[in-house]
Specification:
Chain B: It comes from Coniochaeta pulveracea. Chain B: Pfam families: UCR_UQCRX_QCR9. Chain B: It is a single-pass membrane protein. Chain B: This is Complex III subunit 9. Chain B: Belongs to the UQCR10/QCR9 family. The structure holds 2 protein chains of 2 kinds. By secondary structure, chain A is of the alpha+beta class. Chain A folds into 2 domains: about 1-55, no CATH class; about 110-235, Rieske [2Fe-2S] iron-sulphur domain (Rieske Iron-sulfur Protein, 3-layer Sandwich), CATH 2.102.10.10. Chain A contains 8 helices and 10 strands. Chain A has helices spanning about 1-15, 20-25, 30-35, 50-55, 70-100, 105-110, 140-150, 160-165, and strands at about 115, 125-130, 135-140, 170-175, 185, 195, 200-205, 210, 225-230, 230-235. In chain A, the strands form 3 sheets. Chain A has a 4-stranded antiparallel sheet, with no helix packed on it. In chain A, strands 1-10-9 form a 3-stranded antiparallel sheet, with no helix packed on it. In chain A, strands 2-3-4 form a 3-stranded antiparallel sheet, with no helix packed on it. In chain A, strand 5 (about 185) and strand 6 form a beta hairpin. Chain A starts with a helix and ends with a strand. The relative contact order of chain A is 0.09. The longest helix of chain B is centred in the middle third of the chain and has 30 residues, at about 15-45. Chain B has a single domain, classed as Single alpha-helices involved in coiled-coils or other helix-helix interfaces (Up-down Bundle). The termini of chain B are far apart. By secondary structure, chain B is mainly α. Chain B has helices at about 1-10, 15-45, 50-55. Chain B has 3 helices and no strands. The chains are: A alpha+beta, B mainly alpha. The interface of A and B includes residues 67, 70, 83, 87 and 91 of A.
């Protein structure tokens, strides 16, 4: 359209005297309207003889009585409402689907175990059940802590310093599952004063590190925390 | 008529304004819908849910 209009403007600029190129151009009626410069909306077909069937009907009866902006507003309002309801529905669908994968309330209730540490005297082991597995808690004496720190870490099968295995040195918390084949080791037994697995003879020291026997790794440390001084939360 | 034009100019004219309006409406509508539906559900199941019969079984239920 743009080149046609420029052409038409150029034709007008070249004065009415040279009207021949304008006439030549005006095979299309719309172009002739643009060239003459009038803004009449009437449409005259360039094809003579077929006036009846090509006449544009009168739509004024169907046109909105109001200015039209009410309809526009209503249209956008409906689009926006549909969008809002769809967005809420989509969000709800995804949220419920993801909630489906979350742990249920009974699982969450079993996930944490709280232990009162004041009831455990120094130098004693306590075994509690956590998520179906035994957890060893040992209140270590000062001598045991020193013994655990004295060990040459680099000579161990699974080298790990004692301070990496405990949060408070007097409290050793670890899963009571032998890393060999999953038996439960016996406390205060074995060659290293720690734990001894009766199934295949793995010896763990006072920090729960594997020292002798078939087990490949140290006893596992669960996630735990001391929310208060005399309270331990595992999980 | 004039206030309708204001509404249009404020909420629908620019795309980001319309998007913001739609999402804000969605948020508010979802809360309203959820609350209403929960109330309907509680009303239909009145007297059958744990929170309705809890004080019959647990002494001092008002403490919690």
């Amino acid at each position: 359209m743009a080149p046609l209009t420029t052409l038409a403007r150029a034709a007008v600029r070249s004065s009415a005297a040279a009207s021949l190129p304008v006439r030549a151009l005006s095979t299309s009626a719309a172009c002739s309207v643009a060239a003459s410069g009038t803004t009449s909306p009437s449409y005259s077909s360039p094809f003579k003889g077929a006036q009846k069937s090509t006449q544009v009907p009168d739509f004024s009866h169907y046109m909105a009585k109001s200015s039209g902006s009410t309809n526009q507003l209503f249209g956008y309002f409906m689009v926006g409402t549909l969008g809002a309801i769809s967005a809420a529905g989509a969000k709800s669908t995804i949220q419920e689907f993801l909630k489906n994968m979350a742990a249920s309330a009974d699982v969450l209730a079993m996930a944490k175990v709280e232990v009162d540490l004041a009831a455990i005297p120094e130098g004693k082991n306590v075994i509690i059940k956590w998520r179906g597995k035994p957890v060893f808690i040992r209140h270590r004496t000062q001598g045991e802590i020193e013994e655990a720190n004295k060990v040459n870490v680099s000579a161990l099968r699974d080298p790990q310093a004692d301070e990496d295995r405990v949060k408070k040195p007097e409290w050793l918390v670890m899963l009571g599952v032998c890393t060999h084949l999953g038996c439960v080791p016996i406390g205060e037994a074995g060659d290293f004063g720690g734990w001894f697995c009766p199934c295949h003879g793995s010896h763990y020291d006072i920090s729960g590190r594997i020292r002798k026997g078939p087990a490949p790794l140290n006893l596992e440390i669960p996630v735990y925390d001391f929310p208060e001084d005399d309270k331990l939360v595992i999980g | 008529m004039a206030q309708l034009g204001t509404v249009y100019n404020l909420f629908f004219r620019r795309n980001y304004a319309m998007l913001a309006t739609v999402f804000t409406t969605a948020f508010a509508w979802e809360m309203l819908y959820d609350n209403t539906m929960n109330k309907v559900w509680d009303n239909i199941n009145k007297g059958r849910q744990w929170k309705d019969i809890r004080q019959k079984y647990i002494q001092g239920a008002d403490d919690e």
